[in-house]
Amino acid sequence: MSETTSNILAQDSLSRKSLAFCGYTGYAAIILFIIGGVWLGGMLPPIPNANDAPAELVAKVNDNLLNFRVGSIFMIASFALFGTFGAGMAAQTRRFETSPVFSYVQIVFAAAGTTIALLVAFAWSLMVFRPDTYEPSILLMWADFAYFLALFSVPLFGGWCVLIALPIFFSEPGREPFPRWVAYVNLWAALLFAPGQMVIFFKDGPFSWHGIVAMYLPFIAFFAWIAIMSWVMIKIAHDENS
Question: What is the pLDDT of residue 173?
């Protein structure tokens, strides 16, 4: 075997392991969010509500202070993994590009999405840092800020999904970076994120940031999207024909 062939095979082996690693970090992000955001952190289902009075929010935060603080640590660890998850999808797209346009733009969106997600955890952490010192209205602002970052950023996270779908549609048959059904999954995900932008109009009901349409639907769709794309990356990494 020539040195060149050996290097190519080694690089291919490394790329497969890297892709699988990125897929597994997506699963890890989901697990860490379930611990930090659902079990401990009170973000989903939300302990605070969009129509809470400031004093009511302070009481809820103080009643759950330790859980919120520990949950914030798990949440920021979860959201940091969005970077590796997004890098894996961009790398897989790059393998099939002659000119690296979509893969580079995916990296930009992944970096921006990771930054927004990290700011969600920062806002949640500041909310519980010194609740007895802050003015109650400031605590309410931090809660609003966290949910607006997560839900109102539809063009960013929805656009990320669209930029994964487009190179699949534009590729020659048999040369798609991901199976064709993955493109439709990403378009559906972008559509399901859209109700999050309704939070600017409502403080109560299904379209508020604690409502089933504007909060639960995008959150569940987002983490289901991560689970599906993680599974796809791991499957491709272990498929000898890919």
Answer: 87
Rounded to the nearest 5°, which phi and psi values hold at 94?
-65, -30
> pLDDT tens digits, residue range 132-178?
899 999 999 999 999 999 999 999 999 999 999 999 999 888 889 99
Contacts of 105 (CB under 8 A, 6+ apart): 163
What predicted TM-score, i.e. pTM, was given to this entire model? 0.92
Residue 225 CB contacts under 8 Å (≥ 6 apart), including other chains: 161, 185, 186, 189
**Which H helix or E strand runs over 12?**
helix 3-33
Say if 2 falls within a structural domain.
no
Distance CA 16, CA 182 (A): 19
**Does 190 fall in a domain?**
yes
Residue 82 within any structural domain of the chain: yes
